[in-house]
Amino acid sequence: MSKNVAIVQSYFDAVSKGDFDTVGSLFADDVIWYQPGDGIQSGTYNGKEAVFAHLGNFMKWSNGTFVIDEIEYLSSNADLVSAAIHFKAEKGDLKLAMKGMDLLRVEDSKIKEVWLFSERIADEDAFWNAASKD
User: Fold this and answer.
1) In whole angstroms, what is the distance from residue 14 CA to residue 125 CA?
2) For residue 59, what is the DSSP state?
3) Pure H helices in the chain
4) How far apart are the C-alpha atoms of 3 and 31, rounded to whole Å?
């Protein structure tokens, strides 16, 4: 396993345990997070504080049910690591479950940039837009 893949694996392990101290230690202070789509969650988030607020909204809007429940594989190419994942969340009658691809750039042993790609971004947008209203 490459060093960068090990860093990204540690990130996903920490997220799955809710260990956000470790997540924070793996992010560069000036991390940039690119969230796809045209929904309430979409946009570019700059710095740890903004990224953590963004991730916190996923938990708040889903009543704590948002999870990455499968990492199909991790693969690296120099400083980039791709992660084929499956994620899900629910809130009341609303349900979200789909595949995604996360692309993370590692610089100086820290996650510097994160790009997310969703299997059905319009469905994801609809879920978060509706879930955020309650």
Assistant:
1) 25
2) H
3) 3-17, 20-26, 48-61, 121-131
4) 19
**Regions of the chain short of the pLDDT cut 70:** 134
Name the pairing type of β-strands 110-118 and 27-35: parallel
Tokens for 104, please give them: 């993370």
Kindly report the backbone phi and psi dihedral angles of residue 46, in degrees, each rounded to the nearest multiple of 5, phi listed first: -115, 125
The one-letter amino acid code at 102 reads D
pLDDT given for residue 83 in this prediction: 98
Residues 34/44, Cβ–Cβ less than 8 Å? yes
Q: Could you give the dihedral angle defined by the CA atoms of residues 5, 125, 42 and 132, in that order, rounded to the nearest 10 degrees?
A: -110
Measured in Å, how far apart are the chain's first and last C-alpha atoms? 43
